[in-house]
Amino acid sequence: MLDTPRRGVRTTGLRPRMRVVEYQMYVGRRIWRSVFVVSVLQPLAYVVALGVGLGAIIDTGGHHPLGVSYIQFVAPAFLTAAALQIAAADASYPIMAGFKWIRTFHGMAATPLTPAQICDGQLIFVAIRIALNSAVYLAIMAAFGGTQRWAVLLTVPIATLTAMAFAAPIAALAATIEREGNAFNMVFRFVVTPMFLFSGTFYPISELPHWGQWLAWVTPLWHGTDLARGVAIGGLGAGAAIVHLAYLLAWLVAGVALARWRFCVRVTR
Amino acid sequence: MLRLLPSHVVAAPAPRPLATVDPARGDALIRAEGLTKTFGEFTAVAGIDFAVERGEAFGFLGPNGAGKSSTMRMIACVAPITAGTLQILGMDPVTQGPTIRGRLGVVPQQDTLDLELTVRENLYIYGRYFGMSRAELRPKVEELIDFAQLTERADAKVEPLSGGMKRRLTIARSLINDPDILLLDEPTTGLDPQARHVLWDRLYRLKQQGVTLVLTTHYMDEAEQLCDRLVVMDSGRIVAEGSPLHLIGEHSTREVAELRFPPGENAAAAERLAGMLDGASERAEVLPDRVLLYVADGERAVARAHEQGLSPVSSLVRRSTLEDVFLRLTGRSLVD
Predict the structure, then answer these.
(1) Domain ranges (residues) in chain B
(2) A1 touching B, CB under 8 A?
(3) Which of A57, A191, A206, B98 to pair with B33, CA 20 to 30 A apart?
(4) Sequential DSSP letters for B310-329
(5) What span, in angstroms and rounded, lies between the C-alpha atoms of A5 and A17?
(6) In sequence order, what E strands does chain B have?
(7) Which structural domain, as residue segments, surrounds residue A57?
(8) CA B287 to CA B270: how far, in whole Å?
(9) Which of residues 2-31 of A touch B (CB under 8 A)?
(10) Which residue in A has a C-alpha nearest to residue B116's C-alpha?
(11) Strand (E) or helix (H) holding A9
(12) Looking at the partner chain, which of A4, A30, A112 has a beta carbon nearest the beta carbon of B129?
């Protein structure tokens, strides 16, 4: 009798990557309630405070200086910015811990999983979480009148793409740093927060001085915000939409390549 | 039955019967020639040759920094080799790393368990990394919980478990894929004596089942307990090779007499004692607090010391151990 394969071990394709996602789901099962509460409370606070509160001052007397009500203007931008911030957080300390403290990734590297698969799986998990979070966000905004057309559903994939375009290089950083992660504080203080303030979230970037607009054009967040706002309230040309998408995809591809490389260097040393 | 698999699916062969190994046939599970690992300017492994046969328990002994762990990480197909050749299960780690890793079990020096998950979940998830199905894993996980003697803690989180329990779980986890070779990097470092003995008992059981064990240790008793054959490494090189008994015969004497003299008198006593030794194989070594005589007959050496008018504060005669060999070969100075 010929040798019967005891087991076929699949070493390419999506499946090995989904094993990493499955692991993260297992870990996440214990904390999903608190994660869910945060993902509801945060958009609720932003929408009520800024969309409704600040909106009441801006849209005085039924007049809309931005063409639509202020809540409709900021809602898709909040969605995108929140997605990016949460993804950046998920790609920072949790990934660093997987190398440094819990050492999960080193354990995975001893199995048929390759460093690139471990990296991809980790990023896929973050993307799934961001997509779900964005869907919750969208539902809350809809409840407060922040949306008016079906195309607004596209803001969920747009926000997820924007978030991952920024989170992938953060994951590369998380796989690189050896010390306690002060680098993340720098990134959050000097990159993430300013980006939130100057990427057209609260006002069109045409209000900024010229150099400010240049800065906004460089950030992935402005491209994501402009795209999400475009599908949510209209007024975005196909050419601009394609440029936004291409720019975000370029960040994503470069970021994933960088992250895979750093994962590989870290576990194979 | 022959099942045709798509090319990206790697078929693991059915377990083969334990064959008597003929080294000349060259079917070693691990074969390394001129194996080298450098990190920048630093050479961790300096061109070593060894082969591990099926069913063997093979040990790497050496002080910290000798290159044991680097060697293990190359065998585990995690760290790439710098130079030389390495074949594992007849395959090349560079091109077939995932396939080889699918047939290895790895117990790393530092545990990589997920402390937030339970014992059972840790085993299950790890099996999933090997592409095992839920149905396959269900009985396997139960079997391994039993093997690790963790039945009562199966649904407890890993975090509060003792060091010995965590180590047993790590070993159980490494067996989830029925590995052809089990790699253990300092399996009992940091454990108390009871936990070590329980662990040895588990490893001994695996050895009897024909699992090929490759381990590193700096505990001599561990090496004597578990290894059929071992190599002593120092500064990235292999300085001796053989069975524990063979190594003792080769590099030490049958017995050691330890004579303790008052402080400051040991060196002078050693000089007088050295004169009565058989210079070819026997020797004396001075330590700050005692003199060691490596001799064929320890009792006789002590008697002759007294005849010479020496009166040690205390004396002890014991068999030579692997530790004597180890210290002889790698020196007494600290490696930090």
Answers:
(1) 28-248, 253-319
(2) yes
(3) B98
(4) ---SEEEEEE--HHHHHHHH
(5) 23
(6) 9-12, 30-39, 42-52, 57-61, 83-88, 104-107, 181-185, 212-217, 229-234, 237-242, 255-260, 283-286, 291-295, 314-319
(7) 17-22+30-268
(8) 10
(9) 2-13, 15-16, 19, 22-23, 26-27, 30
(10) A27
(11) strand A7-10
(12) A112
Question: pLDDT tens string for chain B (336 positions)?
Answer: 334 444 444 444 444 444 444 444 457 999 999 999 999 999 999 999 999 999 999 999 988 888 999 999 999 999 999 999 999 999 999 999 999 999 999 999 888 999 989 999 999 999 999 999 999 999 999 999 999 999 999 999 999 999 989 999 999 999 999 999 999 999 888 788 888 888 888 888 888 888 999 999 888 888 888 899 999 999 999 999 999 888 888 888 888 999 898 888 888 888 888 877 777 678 888 888 888 888 888 888 888 888 888 888 888 898 888 888 888 888 766 555
Residues counted in chain A: 269
The continuous run of DSSP H or E covering A168 comes out as helix A155-176
Asked if A268 has any chain B CB less than 8 Å from its own CB, the reply is yes
One-letter amino acid identity for B104? L
What CA–CA distance (Å, rounded) separates A259 from B313? 66
Architecture of the B253-319 domain: 2-Layer Sandwich (3.30)
Domain count, chain A: 1
- Identify the residue whose tokens are 């499955």: A22
| Token pair belonging to A48 | 């009520």
A241: exposed, middle or buried (Cβ count in 10 Å: 0-12, 13-18, 19+): middle
Closest CA to B50 of B2, B84, B17, B14: B84
Assigned CATH for B28-248: 3.40.50.300
ipTM, 2 dp: 0.88
Q: Which amino acid is residue A88, in one-letter code? A: A
Q: How close A13 gets to chain B, by Cα (Å)?
A: 9
Answer whether residue A229 is part of any domain: yes
Q: How many residues does chain B have?
A: 336
Residue A161 forms part of a structural domain: yes
A1 inside domain: no
Residues in chain A closer than 8 A to B106 (CB atoms): 110
Q: Does residue A168 sit within a domain?
A: yes
The letter for the amino acid at A6 is R
Burial class (CB in 10 A: 0-12, 13-18, 19+), B222: buried
